[in-house]
Amino acid sequence: MKKKIIISFTLFTVCINAIAQKREAKEQSASVSIAFGSNQFTTAFSYRYLWNFGKKNQLQMGTGLRLTNNFGKNNYYITAPAKLTSGNTGPAVLFADQLNQNIDSVLFSKSQTNALNLTLNFGYKINDKWSVGFDIDAIGFSFGRSQQGTYIGNAGIVAAANAKPTGFNWLLISDNDLGTLNSEFFAQYNINKKWSAKLGFQFLFTEYTTDTNLQTTPAGDKNGRFRNKVGQISVGTTYKF
Length: 241
What we know:
By secondary structure, the chain is mostly beta strands. It contains 2 helices and 13 strands; from the N terminus they run αβββαββββββββββ. The two termini are about 40 Å apart.
C-alpha cells in the first residue's frame, strides 16, 4: 500500500509538471478560513499553486501547503487503526462494517492539534465570478502539547490517559489514514481580481497517540492511537498574487 501511494503521488507530480511546461497560465493564492463543528472549531491557513488547463483554462490542478489548527472541548477520540476498526486494510476498508468490540475511546476535556501538510488541489472555474474546488492534505506532520484524558475501554475499564498529537500525517484510504488530515469542498466568489470569498465544507481527522498502549482488544492487539472525525462548515477569504 505504501508503495502504491508513493507511485500515485509521483505520477501526480509528473502530471502537473507536464501541464506547467505546456501552459503558462498559472495561479498562486493564499487563503484563511474558519470552520465550526461539534464542540470544536478550526482555523486553516493555505497556500496554493495551481496550473490552469483546458480550452478555456477552466480546469485547475496543483499543490500547496496548509496549516490547520483545531481546538476542541469534551470530544471523544475512538480507536484509529483500520485493522482494528474494520479488520481490513486497503480499499476494502471503505465498505467494511465497524467492529464495535474493538472500539475504545479517550475523552479529552480540551484538545488542540496543529498540522502542517502538503496539499493536493483541484478546481473548476464556472465563470469570471464563480469557481468550485477541492483540496486534501497528503503528507506532513503534527505538533501540540500533551493532553490529559480519560481512557474508556469497551470492557468497562476506565483509566487516566496522557497523549500527544500523532507526529506523522499520511493520506492513505479512510481509516488507514495516519495523523491529522484536512480536506475541503468549497465554492468561491471573486469580489475583484485579487480578493475572493469562499464557503465550504471541511472533513477533518485529528489524532492522538497515548504514551502507552492502553487498549487491548479481545484478540490481544495493543493500541495507542485514537482519532476524532468531524464535518465542519467553513468560511474564508482568498488573496490571489
